[in-house]
Amino acid sequence: MCQSVFHNRPDVKVTFSLINRSSQVPLARLIDEGELREQLDHIRSLSLTRGESTWLRGNTFYGKRQMFRPDFMEWFENLQLPPYFLERVGDQYELTFEGSWPEVMLWEIPALAVLMELRSRAVLDDMKRFELQVLYARAATKLWEKVERLREVPGLRIADFGTRRRHSFLWQDWCVQAMVEGLGAGFTGTSNCLIAKNRDLEAIGTNAHELPMVYAALAEDDETLARAPYDVLADWHEEHEGNLRIILPDTYGTEGFLEHAPDWLAGWTGIRIDSGDPVRGAENAIAWWKARGEDPMQKLVIFSDGLDEDKILELYEMFHRRVRVSFGWGTLLTNDFRGLAPDDALAPFSLVCKAVSANGRPTVKLSDNPNKAMGPADEIARYKRVFHVGKQERREVVV
Amino acid sequence: MCQSVFHNRPDVKVTFSLINRSSQVPLARLIDEGELREQLDHIRSLSLTRGESTWLRGNTFYGKRQMFRPDFMEWFENLQLPPYFLERVGDQYELTFEGSWPEVMLWEIPALAVLMELRSRAVLDDMKRFELQVLYARAATKLWEKVERLREVPGLRIADFGTRRRHSFLWQDWCVQAMVEGLGAGFTGTSNCLIAKNRDLEAIGTNAHELPMVYAALAEDDETLARAPYDVLADWHEEHEGNLRIILPDTYGTEGFLEHAPDWLAGWTGIRIDSGDPVRGAENAIAWWKARGEDPMQKLVIFSDGLDEDKILELYEMFHRRVRVSFGWGTLLTNDFRGLAPDDALAPFSLVCKAVSANGRPTVKLSDNPNKAMGPADEIARYKRVFHVGKQERREVVV
């Protein structure tokens, strides 16, 4: 995704901002500001190691060698992440990043992962040695019981999408290894490149909402705005093929997006369903493919919204005879400490880091769930009009 | 106990024998004979290290420094355990030890611990890495949940008696440390001297059935036999005071033992209840002390038979206002892997190693539970007559 931005919109200035959708979690009371600054400063001191660079240049991703072009790799190797702006406001932190898009976008994952892990550590700090051991024993058992249920279903395919909101790095690494042992070929890889490299796994990924959000914010008029979600995929189409051609249709409402989509998009490999009712999302995708003369059995639906093993099993059972199905399992894979600490102090929560403006203009996300929407009210109203979004069903956002 | 035997009956020749009371566990199919021999040979190669010897000589046990006399320590330092006799018979092992009593008696604990641990390892051998991790995670959680329940009760006092039937050495060590962190002063120590030494804990212990069993076997006539259980405690009385003066009354039936006991025994600190209905056992003890003019509130009842946290909490609740109460928690502290492996292959079982003869005469144990009785039928009948043992209630022996 970064390479795509680097080639197509390198000069766009963006602002990314931390958004704690779980305002009941008082991040600034839990995490010491000095410690947070230390971590963020440390992230700015990092650059690719020689081994990491060699791996990115030489490894096969999605069956393709040299996915990353030399000009991109050279830029990446010399990259230092831009400055951050941190301020405590009440019990929350305001944390923003400004600069050119390809640079700033790389802050999202480490910033979130650091905040999540510092919060975990703050809670762990008060625990004694055996309490700690048993905490991890319980978390391990909990994950393994999920794995034991999932591995009963042959054909299930699941990837790790849990980097940004993981409990901690070591815990994510453990979860990934448990998935490898438990699911074998049913575990299709991880979006954490370091773990993929260290554990010799497939590094996998897809495109995210920030692409259409920034393209849309840059649109000069309503007509360009209406075209923006397709323009971004046209650029993507130039760069990627096969299993990387996955539509993320919900940024401004899935139904309108599919209805107005150009025919070449129906030729893409699949659709990722990341908000709203997943059953309805998959039904819409199947109906759309049929309407465009495509065979759904040749198509891939990737579910990735707030998954846990029950939902995975239910969705697989419902759809695997009608379409190819895959799962991007995130927070409840790498951070399911629900119920394991007093006051549920380690439960995961909905922390995101989003592009909030591009070249000075606010971004907007509507999503298929109003609780995930973001942007100024007047812009939301405008986008709803432009994208023909009607009444939406509100769904609770847990993670 | 060994020092007592060393001073009082050093020349008695005894035979100790392995008895698997859980004959459904096919030990010889589970444990490789070569591996077992290797371990038993290794035990024979062991002697006290200098540090262990220094600790035994210099440490305080039950508030007493130099509990072990120099002649005993010198003998102990030069001890090599006598040979063992091992034969596979069907799916079980016959394992016996012969020689002088103070030497042979030291085989019991390592022989049992090795058999238990080899059985654990045999089951673990078939498990993969994450299965193993989760197995131990579950076992740790299980123990910790017991600790969490027990620590809710202030005043509860529990010691580790779980060496001989532990899952493994490292696991026992972990359990002991969990008890230390979880129960604090409520954890009164361990009967495993090595762990006590390494972890700076109280080494605790008491006397066992083998003392009256061997004394009784040596009795030339019924009159001497009837006196044997008291003779052995008279010898013990000479050597030990305070909290080491604990009566184990059930070898030939608790009720008869107490009824015919000499008055000086009522002056002892406490009674250990190791078979039969523990409530009845404690009630008998309390009634006996009262009948002998003693104040039960000054006396100690130690429960040690097949305890788990439910039984501990129940017995504590019933008796702690009427007598001092303590618990010797064994197998279900250090080996509660029930329900954690396929086919319950790691569940603890009732393996013992007992004195079966002394100077060529068979030993007998009646116990307060006929399922724990042992000895030739005619000798059992004779002992029942001599000790006035009537009808006994059968209770299932789990561990």
UniProtKB/TrEMBL annotation, chains A, B:
One of its GO terms (biological process) is NAD+ biosynthetic process via the salvage pathway. It holds the Pfam family NAPRTase. Keywords: Glycosyltransferase, Ligase, Phosphoprotein, Pyridine nucleotide biosynthesis, Transferase. Pathway: Cofactor biosynthesis; NAD(+) biosynthesis; nicotinate D-ribonucleotide from nicotinate: step 1/1. GO terms for molecular function: glycosyltransferase activity; nicotinate phosphoribosyltransferase activity. Its EC number is 6.3.4.21. The modification Phosphohistidine is found at residue 209. It comes from the Bacteria. It catalyses: 5-phospho-alpha-D-ribose 1-diphosphate + nicotinate + ATP + H2O = nicotinate beta-D-ribonucleotide + ADP + phosphate + diphosphate. GO terms for cellular component: cytosol. Transiently phosphorylated on a His residue during the reaction cycle. Phosphorylation strongly increases the affinity for substrates and increases the rate of nicotinate D-ribonucleotide production. Dephosphorylation regenerates the low-affinity form of the enzyme, leading to product release. Residues 157-390 form the Nicotinate/nicotinamide phosphoribosyltransferase domain. Residues 1-115 form the Nicotinate phosphoribosyltransferase N-terminal domain. Belongs to the NAPRTase family. Catalyzes the synthesis of beta-nicotinate D-ribonucleotide from nicotinate and 5-phospho-D-ribose 1-phosphate at the expense of ATP. This is Nicotinate phosphoribosyltransferase. The lineage of its organism: Bacteria, Pseudomonadati, Pseudomonadota, Alphaproteobacteria, Rhodobacterales.
